[in-house]
Amino acid sequence: MTNRAHVDPASSLMFRTLQNSPENSLWFVDENISLPLPAAQTQIQVITNRFDLFQQLQQAGWHSRFSDFDTSHITPRSLTRILLRIPKEKPLAHYLINQAAKLLDDQGELVLIGDKSEGIRSYGKRARERLGGQLNETKINAGLWFTSITHDAQANTPELDDQQYTQLRQLSDRTGFSFISKPGLYGWQKVDQGSAFLCDELVVLLDQPLPLSGRVLDLGCGFGYLSLRSASTKTLLTCTDNNAAALRACQANIDMQGLRADVIASDAGDTLQGPFDTILCNPPFHSGFATNSDLTSRFVAAAARLLSAEGHAFFVVNKHIALEHKAASHFGKIHLQADNGHFKLIHLSQPRHYRNLS
């Protein structure tokens, strides 16, 4: 768990604001909130789209839900305050501001916290246009702003463009590959080039034709691209991700292609039990607005725990990520299979923990 000294200024300001929030408040939480979380405030509901944060919230005693920011359980115009640390993705920010306009009572308050470089002032102005009330801005320091917008329930204001955030939609890439995705996923309108590189090389990596057989894990599945490219109805497939939007899209893709899979929420595979014969992974290395190299290490450790003694794990990472070094303490065999100048493919096998059991 992150030390309190490493909590970013925006999260610190949010935590202080939570302590003074009234009854019937709602806190939207996504990946850009720092850990550890503050003590629970019983008057505040929480919705998060991140499974790791949901686990932390539960442990801290918060009344929290894990979903793709589904607010259907909340009565319209029933909330006094909604709190939001500005998200990284514009469609999500607009969607949550639109939700505030539906859920806040007359003269209810939307609190936005964020850095000037994150667009906090622009979002404040758009929120004021959507909620129709008063905008109050406070500059905390050189970059950090606290913004409050009141809701005029009588105002007839248009919704912000959130790219129909809740709607799954079918897309295709330039090769004609069809998939279902939605806003809320990183690079949601395209196929990740690292994942495509891995799938293109899988036949060579495995030294056998696709589809994959046996128990297969798509670790950090996103919308399920690796599974769609490599599995069949006979594959014993498990897909897992930390993001609620990813899980929604992955399940829709599995259903569309007629595959059978367990689609499971986890924090880098922490809720799963192995062993798996094959693990495919394109690990994330961003958390909110920051780059977090620890994420790759956690995915590697999870793969070692979940892989069978004779199994094979295939990772694709940006060329600059030292995955081989991170994997050395977990795997007996580490092989750089391919490097296209942008991404590299790493083949991992012989998990070391089996030696400790023998």
From TrEMBL:
Methyltransferase small domain span: 178-346
Location of the Methyltransferase small N-terminal domain: 32-129
Record bears the keyword Cell cycle: no
Q: Which UniProt keywords apply?
A: Cytoplasm, Methyltransferase, rRNA processing, S-adenosyl-L-methionine, Transferase
Q: Which Pfam families does the record cross-reference, listed alphabetically? A: MTS, MTS_N
Q: Which GO terms describe its molecular function?
A: nucleic acid binding; rRNA (guanine-N2-)-methyltransferase activity
Q: Which SUPFAM superfamilies match?
A: S-adenosyl-L-methionine-dependent methyltransferases (SSF53335)
Q: Which PANTHER family match?
A: RIBOSOMAL RNA SMALL SUBUNIT METHYLTRANSFERASE C
Protein name per the record: Class I SAM-dependent methyltransferase
